[in-house]
């Protein structure tokens, strides 16, 4: 039964084969440029502020606790 389903798969693959190549090339060329600028700017500033303040207090508290013990 699985063999029969796989045999029908080729028909669907051929149909997608035509529209896939053109769309894939356009999406790849247009996708990289836009995401690069926004990702770098959005991912750069956010990490330092949120990770800095919380990490400092947490580390200081843990050190004090350890010293007490």
Automatic annotation (TrEMBL):
Region (Disordered): 1-60
The protein, known as: Uncharacterized protein
Compositionally biased spans, kind Pro residues: 31-56
Taxon lineage: Eukaryota, Metazoa, Porifera, Demospongiae, Heteroscleromorpha
Low complexity bias (residue ranges): 1-15
Organism of provenance: Amphimedon queenslandica
């Amino acid at each position: 039964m699985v063999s029969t389903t796989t045999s029908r798969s080729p028909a669907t693959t051929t149909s997608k084969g035509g529209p896939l190549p053109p769309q894939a090339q356009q999406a790849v060329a247009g996708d990289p440029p836009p995401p690069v600028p926004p990702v770098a700017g959005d991912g750069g500033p956010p990490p330092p502020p949120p990770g800095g303040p919380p990490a400092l207090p947490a580390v200081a508290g843990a050190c004090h606790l350890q010293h007490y013990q």
